[in-house]
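Sample pair:
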Amino acid sequence: METGTADGAPGGRSRRAAALGRLSREVTRCRRCPRLVGWREEVARRKRAAYADHEYWGRPVPGFGDPEAMILVVGLAPGAHGANRTGRMFTGDRSGEWLYRALFRARLADRPDSIWRGDGLRLDGAYITAAVRCAPPANKPTRDERGACRPFLEREMELFADVPVIVTLGGFAFASVLGIGPGGQPDSAGRGCEPLTVLASYHPSQQNTFTGRLTEEMFDAVWSRAVELSR
């Protein structure tokens, strides 16, 4: 797993990085949902013509970013020809292009382009994950598939229990975050009375960006506010 700025860091960061590494390996081995396993592997075999010479990842996609992050970013699921191809969250499709450009402008990423899991991109202060880890047909996981994947997000939120800001991309991610913890409250996921702000953004999908529902100015405002709150 690529872990952003964690290399060689001491103390708590190393422990969290190690825990995230273990979780990452567990995620990538998961085969709990037969429909999703079949779909992600079929997509990886058939490929899109534009990526015919690419070796698709074709597995569940782990989280990516800075183990010492103060901003947790939660999306819906990997794209069939995006993260399911590249092996990194929000990488290889238009949604990812929007996201990483915005993170770069907010100084949370060291470059505006995320191309492949091994391209050396580093995040500083942010960690990106999703509510579902396999690419679902039509981007619509079933209720059972959501439930099967839920423990991975719960464990990540527990590891990042001290983050003051969570940014959710889309309604499903927002509902997933709100539903974790006793009583269904986001600040009850093992964080006691510590303050937490959940910022809800439209997902940077083509449906939202092409129609102007989400503009770069609006998206930048989300990340500006997230950085402000994280400090």
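The chain is about 40% helix and 10% strand.
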